[in-house]
Structure formats: structure tokens, C-alpha cells
Amino acid sequence: MKRGTGRGLLGRVAQVEPAEAPAVVAAFLLFFCVLGGYFAVRPVRETVGTILGRERVTDLYLVTWVASILIVPAYGWLCTRFRRSAFLPLIYGFVMLSLVAVGLAFSTEAGYLAFGEFFYVWISVLNLFIVSVFWSFLLELFDTGQTHRLFGVIAAGGTTGALVGPLLTDLTVGHIGNSGVLFLGAAFFAVAIACQRRLLAIWSSAPARHGAAAVGERAMGGNPFAGFSLVLKSPYLLGIALFVVLLASVNTFLYFEQLRLVTETFPDIEERTRVFSRLDYIVQSLAVVSQLFITGRVASRLGVMVLLTVIPVAMVAGFTALALFNSFAVLAVVFVARRAGEYAFIRPAREMLFSRVDTESKYKAKNLIDVPVYRGGDALSAQVKGALEGGGLSASGVALLGAVLAGAWALNGWWLGRRAERQAPPASG
């Protein structure tokens, strides 16, 4: 009775069919753990960034980009050689052990100096990689129509985790320190392993859509470097790559302003961690409500194009406001609106775009776009912003340039949305 009542409530809130409920709940919990673990430790990364300084962080964006390129063939090799039932849980296990190792290194003050730069680069690559891996698997589990209805509520699982993670950090960092926060993140990923195994079991028990050799029963095969050729041959995938570059550029412009203002305002290191934590859970609180009640309905009734364009248009207005009133209060509003909108609308819409490509593209091309292309946009925009500021461009001038980038982002989102509506999904096999 309770199970039926829960499924009925889920269906009313998020347009979930009864047969879909077990997979949706398992995916919700898995994404909760993945983003809960990452966002618990993210404030520590931001604190490390304030210790290193904006100039060094700008340089680290280039290092991060190189690292993200190197991870693509490694991940491609895993896809070609191992069953998904083997390498997907192992990825989360590796993350768990890595967080424990860095936590031990940060138990002394000297550890920050010795491992701070490594941690900043590693966590910056990791956050995109683990989210890309999660959505790649979900794109195999659900068809195109289901992605429109279900990806909003599943994304809400990640947003809830991204709310709980920094909240726990805010409440505990004064008692356990930044090192303890990393152990807390590791605990989230330990639970994620169990959730991933449950989701794999659900998929393997549904052979009607996925064939007798369901997930985990065979390796994908192919070339580990296939992601590069797949993207270059497809105007549709190139359009998604451009969308990600523009997204990363807008994010980077705002991020460096955040680093500057928080460093100037909060001299205490642990207080900075609290500030970053509070910004995180304000964002997630706004996003989770939108994902549960708005995202799926907008996608089903108005289409993906609306999800892809509403935030870029809002950022045109936001950057214009920053050009006129360059203050921390305005920046905080724009930053929160951008991130909440990205989690609620942009991220689910990006994943819906990939529902219309083949399996190899869902893993190899998608990972290429999600990680090195995104970090390449980060690195390029960080260098451009630094050069412009070094050349004497004012903060208002930088903000106006951000408005231009946001306008291009909106146009690209409009084109992608139109293209996705006309592109037929691949045949299931």
C-alpha cells in the first residue's frame, strides 16, 4: 500500500509511469549521491582557489584542460574493453578512494601547499566526468520521450544532493576541518556504488528494449579515440560542442569575479568555505523546485528549445546589470540565477539532445564534449578575460563582453532546439 501510494505521488509530481518508478527512484538516489559527494567537497576546492590566487588559478585552467583531454582516450578504452556493469561502479570506487587519499594529505597545513594545485585540477576534471558518465548511462536506459518527462525529476535527485552536500559541509567543517569534509564526500560515493549496481540490475532485467545482451553483458568495442571523429563529422554534435563552449565562457567570467569579491570580503579561510557552501545550497534549493515541477512540463509542452534559451537570455540581462552596477550583491543574484537555471533547465536539456544519437556517441562523443570541450572553453575564456583585464579593460567592459557571449549562447541554443525537434532518434537494438 505504501509503495503504491509513493508511486502515485511520484506520478502526480513528475509524470512518472508506474513501471518507470523503480528506475527513476534508483537514478534519483544515484545522482543524489554523486552530486552530494561532489558538492560536499566543492567548497574546499574554492577555498584552495583563494589560497592559490586568481593568477595561479587562471594558469591551472590550462592544466585542467590538458588533463581533461587525456582522460578521454582512457575512458574510451574502458568503454571498448569492459562491460558497463564492471567499469561504471569501479569509477565511483576510484573517486571514493581518491577523496580519502586527498583528505589524508590535507590533514596538515603543509598538505595544502604540496597538493593544493593537484586537488584543484583533479576535482575540476572529476566533476564533469562523473556527471557525464551518469547521464550517458541514463540515455541508454530511457528513450527520447521518457527523457523529456523524466530527466527533470532525475536531475532533481542530483540537485537535492548538491543541496545536502554543502549544507553538511557548512555545519561540520568547523568541527572536522576541510580534511574531514573530503572523507564525508567519500562516504557519498560509497553509497553511489550500491545505487549504480541497483540501476544496472533494473536495466539488465528489461531485455525487451535493450536486447538479450543487455547492459553489462558485452563491451562496447570500437576505437577509444572515436569521440573526436564522431563530433567532427556531425554538425549536430558540433553545435552541442559550441553550446558547451559558450556556456563555459559565461560561467568562467562570473567565476573569477566571485573569487575576487569573496577573497576581498572574507579573510578567514574556513569562513570562505562557509560562504561558498551557502551559495551552493541557495542555488540548489531554487533548482530542485524547478526540476520537480517545471522542467519536465516545459520540455513536454514547449520543447527543448525553451529550456536551452531561457537562461542565456536571462544572462544577457544579468551581465548588462553587472556593467551598470558592479557590486557583490548584483553578482550574487546573477551567479545564483545562472547556476540554478543551469541545473534546472540547461543541464537536463543538454542530456535530452543526446537522446537522438547512437550508443557510441552517447558515451564517447558525449564525454569528449562534456569534459575537454567544456574545460577548453574554461581555459580559453580565462585567458581572454585575464588578457583583457591586463590590457586595462574595466569590469564594466568585461561584463558587456559577457552579455555578447550570452547572446551568442542564446542563438546557438535556439538552433540546437530546432535541430533536435527535426532529428529522428536512433533505432534501438
What keyword list fits this structure?
mainly alpha, 429 residues, globular, Growth Hormone, Chain: A, single chain
H-E string:
HHHHHHHHHHHHHH
Which stretches are low in confidence, meaning pLDDT under 50 for 5 or more residues running? 208-216
Biggest β-sheet: count, sense, barrel? none
Radius of gyration: 21 Å
| Gross morphology | globular
Strand content: under 5%
Number of strands: 0
CATH class: Mainly Alpha
Count of discrete alpha- or pi-helical segments spanning 4 or more residues:
14
- Termini, distance in Å? 36 Å
CATH superfamily heading: MFS general substrate transporter like domains
Q: Write down the domain tally.
A: 1
Summing up helix and strand content along with how strands pair, one would put the structural category as mainly alpha
CATH fold title: Growth Hormone, Chain: A
Instruction: Name the average pLDDT.
Output: 80
CATH-scheme architecture: Up-down Bundle
Q: What level of helicity do the residues show?
A: over 70%
